[in-house]
Amino acid sequence: MKRICFSSAVIFVLLLMAGCWDQDLLRNARLLYGGGFDLAPDGQLLSTFVIRDMPTGEQQSPKNDIIHTVGNTPRETRDKADDQISRLLRIYRNRIVLIGEELAKQDIYPILDIFYRDPKSALNARIGVVQGLAKDMFSLHKVGNVLIAEEIDELIKSNEEATAVPKVNIETIYPVMMDPGEDFVLPYLTIKGDRVDASRTAMFHKHQFTGTLSPDESTMFLLLKDKKGKLTRLTKKVNQMGQQNAKHFVTFNIEKSKRKMQVLIQPDNQITVRLDLKLKVSIVEYPRDRLSDKKMVAQLNRILSKEMTDLGKKTLKKLQEARCDGLGIGRQLMAFHPDVWEKQKKDWGSNYQKVRFVPVVQVEITKKGNIN
Amino acid sequence: MIPEKNRITQGQLMFFVMQSQVGVGILSLPHKMQAISKGAGWISTLIAGLAVQVVILILWALCRRFPSDTIFSFLPKITGNLLGNLLGFAYIGYFLFFTGTLLSKFADITGKWVLLTTPRWALLILTLLTCIYLAKENVRVMARMFVISSLTIIVMVILSLFGYTNANFSYMFPILEAGWWKIIKGANEALFPLVGYEVLLVIYSFGEGKEGGKLKAASLGNMVITLFYAFEVFTCLVIFSPGVMPFVSEPPLYMLKGFSFQIIQRIDLIFFSLWIFIVGTATSSWLYMSSAGFGHFFHRGDHKKAVLYAALIVFILAMIAQDPAITDLYDRILKTAHYTFAIGLPLILLIFSYFSGTRRA
Amino acid sequence: MMEISVSLSLQKNKEHIQNQLFHSSDLKWRSIRFNQLEGLIFFLESLSDQQRIQKEIIQPLEETKVGTVDEIIVSVGIERISDLSRLPQALVQGNCVLLFEGIEEALIVGVAADYKRSISEPVNEGVVRGAHDGFIEHLITNLYLIRKRIEDPDLVVRYYEAGEAAKTKLALLYMHDLVNPDLVKEVDRRLGSIAMDTTISPGFIAELIEDNPFSLFPQILFTERPDRAVAHLMEGRVVLVTDGDPNALILPVTFFAFFQSPDDYHSRWIAGSFTRMIRLMSFITATLVPALYIAIVGFHPEILPSNLIFTVKSSIDRVPFPPIVEALLMQIILEVLREAGIRLPSRVGQTIGIVGGLVIGDAVVRAGFVSYPMVIVVALTAISSFVAPSNEISTATRILGFPLMILSALFGLIGITYGLLFILIHLCKLETFGTAYFAPVMPLRIKDLKDTFVRFPIWRLNQRPHDPHPKRLNQEKYSRGWENDDPGKE
């Protein structure tokens, strides 16, 4: 007993003297809030680091410190940035990663590798593609009263809920990115004056950025993917005759969305994908009223169904043009028609473009708000 | 004979088997399974569990012939003194070697995930001190601890369930992509993380009750662990696409890394801490097995004194295995040793004792 | 001691007694005549009730003059002794000694004075509802309090004496029909082997008979509440009551007994369960929170969610010390304040509250020595540790926090995990009087969990806890018999 006590005491003291190897004090950290990667003119990597500092006083508001560095790899630029600031740059609380359009057109995996490899990195950071340069977007510094990186993060978050942009983070795109049978999509951000707009979707094929979807299309895409957010609202023109007038439009919430996807293989190896989408919607704005009329409602259902089917077709066409297999058709083939996949997988990108999509959207108005 | 205060109930026997079985393997198993048997990794695991069940049957049949002996005391009775004692030492060596490998793997993974710069020796000493503290107790106290630490398995399952928010079940299909031959091969690989049922050889005689009940307890323990492993493999298979799996060597941790609750993030750290519990108990169990052997040979059955130097040997073994080349060598040795000591030898001994009719009433 | 027979000469006896007591000033005597014989009454005026001597001995003897002494004296305790050497011992126990010229026997009459405080509610173990009486420093009264609650001949009281010079009277109580006989034998053995000059308090006895004196965890439950003692007696445990101290010792107990309070049983079962869970949670908070804080701030800040991390960071940015130093500093200040609070009279105690709480708590942060989160952590620890209804466990809780803090400063969360593993193993190992300390969790006994983390309704607790190995496990079959009465029958 005594000996054990003694020896453990000795070991303990030894540990205490040498200890704290892995200590990483929060006090000594400069916390990265957002990072941006662009293609520098000479082909190198231009990184932007947004560091958030919290002044110690009670009344003071946080401040951003934005640093730009150029280097060959993300890690190199990060180390360069670390050299330029006091204390240690820490990325474990990173919220947002933005990638410039031009860089995204090249392979984006090398940029993300550092995030996947580092055991401390924040894998739940949001990621998006920026029209133009990410650097320019961060250079807005503030949008309204909100600091830029936080604004982008919150903006994407609220738009995810509104089914405007895909809900992804660095972690969730990883399995998709490495899967030959599916491609991922990211939010696509644009600068509108001194504000940021995040309502479009950037499509990727393999690791490359290949095109964008408009706001309506990206909502449609999410519906087709069965990834409806909390709220989905669309405005459609229902009267082709009239002029541009609020009276000719209807705005509706999609309350319930039910998707059925069927991948069919025809004897001639033509792949047909049937997409049935059943939407239950509630009208939130329709100045022409008269919704108590059943015929009127039925007509509206018809018009909306057609509109939405058209939108679906348009969306799918764009996806195919961009060779972005966002719906994971290849995945379905792999899982349930492995023989077909064996033949197709070699050049899936262009084979995907030959897939025949048959989207059918049925809209049913179920709620009309407080007035008819 | 086994003193009264060393007796454990059948339930405790079950947890003893469970906690010896579940060890470092759980983190890397999905990765290995996917590499061999693709989407059918979980089937491979289940098959491995079945195979283990057969082995348990063999061990049970052997042990029941000597209801009050541990392996070290019944070996001489079957094969004669000299060979028996030699084999006894070989078993001690196997147990020690396994403990060393287990710890070195543990240190590797910890060094990779959490304590990146903490020196290996500090981590090993910390682990071994804790394990010594447990392993020098009698079987009953250890069994108590094993029962309570099995709760961690439940929590681990619950944590893994959170992963299902990102699940895509089509990743698993086509299930039989790899073909049955590969699946069986995968099962062979899965046998290794399930090692630990050998503990029966040492603690079987401590269990109370009928022979059948003890078999039931050991089988049930094995079943729980097999199901747990299969569940983890299944979870990882539906969360990570086949394309990612080759890159992620500890998928159960990786899938929780990006997940967050409102008030805490890095759920993987919690999972990791629970895993340490499991590794700690498994190490103690193995340490006990080898020191029971030393105790039998050098201290008249008192294993307490042996724990210290057994731990020292384990420490050295684990310190040596820093290089991947050595780790691979360890793995290869251990696989052969496993087939020999856990399956081959017991079977031979069983047949031998059956024909020669040695049996102690 | 050598036996010396009582001498025929009164004078010789007197001298002997005086010498034995070293002419102590409070030794008094009074002469008396009875049966025509010269007699002397010796007593210690500090211990004997002089009115009783007057009423019960002197008056009857003076009035009757002739007869048998034993019949005339009206005292209850009366004993004839021929061994002179035993007289001083009798005197220091408050008896008076009666000697007559020419008689070789002494009469010892029990006339000890009973100065005792009245029964009042124990300050340290207050309850909201329930009995408000508590043990006092008088053994007989304490026994009365217990006997009164269990009017059952199966309740056995055994007297012991501990201490060689200053003897302390002890009473061992148990229910004969419930208690495990091995337990009584073991306690008897250990009590019998106590060799010590003085056993001042029950704490001494606890320390002398407990199994694991090196453990941080208390293994014997102290209580000043008779109802608590009785409840444990009825579970087949043993209670030790000492003379001169209001604390009764209950043994063997489990870890969870320290978190039970009579209040749990007096309030409704849902409320009782809730408060008990709060107490156990507080135990975990008090041991873990400082260590966790150190681990998070020093090793894994990424655990904190974004909105929290910046708030925490802004307040710790100025602190010059590593978190472990900060934590140790604050914990020690807290302990100092607590200790100071106990020693001071209550009026001054308030000052301590102001100085400690306001001045130190606030100034230390404003000066930038310690961060706000750390103050919160330490305050939380302190409050949580005081929740436990037993002082022993609450102290143990706070001490337990220190090794965990050091481990966490060395290895972060991993260190804490090892610390917990170590504590759990320790709890597994502990056994007190043949009972597993961490029962019913280790070894697991599902049935007993009904009254461990929660308290099931009383009518569901039909079995006694298994840990003291009582003779009869079942208490009753069905406590709500009226539910079976079918009113329609009548």
- Average pLDDT of chain C, rounded to a whole number, is 85
The biggest beta sheet of chain B reads: none
Radius of gyration of chain B: 20 Å
Instruction: Report the oligomer.
Output: heterotrimer
CATH superfamily of chain B: Amino acid/polyamine transporter I
Structural class of chain B: mainly alpha
Query: How many beta-strand segments of chain C?
Result: 12
Number of strands of chain B: 0
What is the rounded distance between the termini of chain B?
Answer: 12 Å
- Please list the strands of the largest sheet of chain C in the order they lie side by side: 1-2-4-5-3
| Sequence stretches where pLDDT stays below 50 over 5 or more residues of chain B | none
The level 1 CATH classification of chain B is Mainly Alpha
Number of helices of chain C: 16
Determine the number of helices of chain B (DSSP H or I, runs of at least 4 residues).
Answer: 15
Describe this structure in words.
The complex is a heterotrimer of chains A (372), B (361) and C (490). Chain A is an alpha/beta fold and 372 residues long. Chain A has twelve helices and 15 strands. Chain A has helices at 2-18, 74-84, 101-105, 109-117, 134-138, 148-161, 170-177, 215-224, 294-321, 329-336, 338-344, 348-353, and strands at 29-39, 45-53, 63-71, 88-90, 96-100, 126-130, 142-143, 146-147, 185-192, 195-205, 208-213, 233-237, 249-265, 271-285, 356-367. In chain A, β7 (142-143) and β8 form a beta hairpin. Chain A is globular. Chain B has a single domain (4-356), classed as Amino acid/polyamine transporter I (Up-down Bundle). In chain B, α3 (41-63) crosses α15 (324-356) and α5 (81-113) packs antiparallel against α15 (324-356). The longest helix of chain B is centred in the first third of the chain and has 33 residues, at 81-113. Chain B is globular. The model of chain B has no long low-confidence stretch (mean pLDDT 86). Chain C has 490 residues and is α+β, with helices and mostly antiparallel strands. Helices cover 44% and strands 13% of the residues of chain C. Chain C contains 16 helices and twelve strands. Chain C has helices at 10-20, 50-64, 69-72, 87-92, 139-149, 181-192, 202-209, 226-233, 262-266, 269-298, 306-316, 323-343, 346-366, 372-387, 391-411, 413-429, and strands at 27-34, 37-44, 78-81, 95-100, 106-110, 155-162, 168-175, 221-223, 238-242, 248-251, 431-432, 435-436. The radius of gyration of chain C is 30 Å and the shape is elongated. Classes of the chains: A alpha/beta (372), B mainly alpha (361), C alpha+beta (490). The A-B interface holds A 8, 11, 15, 18-19, 21-22, 116, 119, 122-124, 169-172, 174-180, 182, 328, 331-332, 334-336, 338 and B 112-119, 122, 125, 129, 166, 168, 170-174, 177, 239-244, 247, 257-260, 265.
